[in-house]
Amino acid sequence: MPGKRLLHLITILPIISPPFVGAVSILFLFGFNGLITKQLLQLQDFRIYGFQGVVLSQIFTFAPIGYLSLRGVLESINPTLEDAALNIGASKWQAFWRVTFPLSLPGIASAFLVVFIESLADFGNPLVLAGAAFPMLAPQAYLEITGSFNLARGATLAVILLIPSLTAFSIQRYYLAKRQYITVTGKPTASTSKLVSQSAKWLLYSVVILFALLVVLFYSVIIVGAFTQVWGFDYSVTMKHIQYVFDVGYETVKDTLIVAILSTPLSGLLGMMIAFLVVRRVFPGKGFMEFTSILNFAVPGTVVGIGYILAFNRLPLILTGTLLILILNFVFRYVPVGIQSGIAVLRQIDPSIEEAAQNLGANSLTTFRKVTLPLIAPAFFSGLVFAFVRAMTAISAAIFLVSANWNLMTVQILNEVGSGRLGVAAAFSVVLVLIVLLAIVIIGGLVNRWARNTSTIRF
Q1: Cβ-based neighbours of 352, under 8 Å, separated by 6 or more
Q2: Which residues contact 218 (CB under 8 A, 6 or more apart)?
Q3: pTM of the shown model
């Protein structure tokens, strides 16, 4: 379809910026002094705060996460299976509903689980848009802990958050464990999907275009705000906000990059190794390991941050205020995404491919490195991208772990918003998005090159 690569980049934009940037964009457009509500439509009583604002911001923020989770799974489905269904008389809809959709269920279930938990534990969007009329658990736990200094009540709210998350995870695991989804068998796959008719193609394409236009609108507001004197009052162009980022905020940008570069490969590799153990190995405690791997992702970031402070603020491990505590936080908090993506793809790969490598003399490590990892490269890429993005953009746990020696851009952005310096906050956001976009291109190139170099298996 036209502009496929561009649409891919636009679609993932919402997950490569701080989670509250979408909420700030909504306020810029639909708030009391919003560009649309006040400047264009001159609405007096329109309120974006509450349920409708949170739903809009979370769809905008988390739809790309589902897209990344599903993309790797769909790329792994053998299109010759769809050809076979069409050749024996199935309609395009029947081939999709009875072949493609069932084989996609691991990815759909994983995407649903990740987005569901992300929405439950979301901190930035509700903090900006929910307001007192629509309180939500994650920001309420944060306010109880930091505002009222009531650790017991904040911890109780965090425990309540775990109940729906664990329920969704249990249902997903029970449902998928009863079925097989193997499609990567080592057999030729020289075909492309023929399921989508021209009319369906352009209908789906129009939906993608509408979402892309919404993303462009939201980020255009942020860009304009970065070069505007005072949003809503003085729209004259200025460069002072960008200069501030590279002058006063240079150390913050450097610290954020160091943390992200160190934590990303650790998170990606750990996620793929755990996924491999869960799907391919049988050992005592396997179900418990899979079950607990998602727990850190389900807990609100504010509780995770306070937990790290309480755990590492005394002997024998005093890590508060250090680089190591930030790396540990990002690795263990966001590795579940890589695990879920890896599990979804590994369930589609026939184990006989790995067994053949071992029969030829390869040990388990060589088989994993030269056979399994290249086959799950799409999921590995998704895990790396998500780990890097969250290391650059996370706020809820990191706000408790930064110090005078190690600060992060997201914390700096939140401080600027709290101080009313929206132009500086927008400038930091623009710089952060550009850094993450460049990193995604680099990670994608490295993963593709590595997968090509290891596609010819030698023992």
Answers
A1: 185, 186
A2: 14, 22, 25, 26, 29, 60
A3: 0.71
Question: Could you give the residue ranges of the DSSP H alpha helices within 227-322?
Answer: 240-247, 250-280, 286-292, 295-298, 301-311
Tell me the per-residue pLDDT of 305-348, one tens digit each, with 9 for 90 and over: 777 877 887 777 788 888 888 898 888 887 877 787 777 777 77
Q: Provide long-range contacts, Cβ within 8 A and 24+ apart, for 143-147.
A: 145/302, 145/303, 145/306, 146/302
Asked, as a colleague might, if the bond just before 79 is cis with ω within 30 of 0, I would say: no
Instruction: Name the residue ranges covered by the structural domains of the chain.
Output: 4-453
**124-180 pLDDT, tens per residue?**
788 778 777 788 887 787 777 767 777 778 777 777 877 777 777 677 667 666 555
Handedness of CA 374, 379, 385, 386 (dihedral sign): negative
* Contact (Cβ atoms closer than 8 angstroms) between residue 320 and residue 409: no
> Residue 345 — φ and ψ, nearest 5°?
-75, -40
Q: Domain 4-453 - what CATH class? A: mainly alpha
Residue 364 burial (CB count, 10 A): 14
Interval 10-30 mean pLDDT: 79
Place of tokens 């996460």: 65
Which two three-digit tokens encode residue 72?
């790797």
Per-residue b/e over 405-416, b at no fewer than 16 CB within 10 Å? ebbbbbbbbbeb
DSSP 8-state assignment for residue 180? -
Radius of gyration of the chain (CA): 23
**Tokens representing residue 101 in the block:** 């959709």
Main-chain dihedrals φ then ψ at residue 293, nearest 5 degrees = -65, -25
d(CA 288, CA 385) in angstroms, rounded, equals 27
Q: What number of H helices and E strands is found in the chain?
A: 22, 4
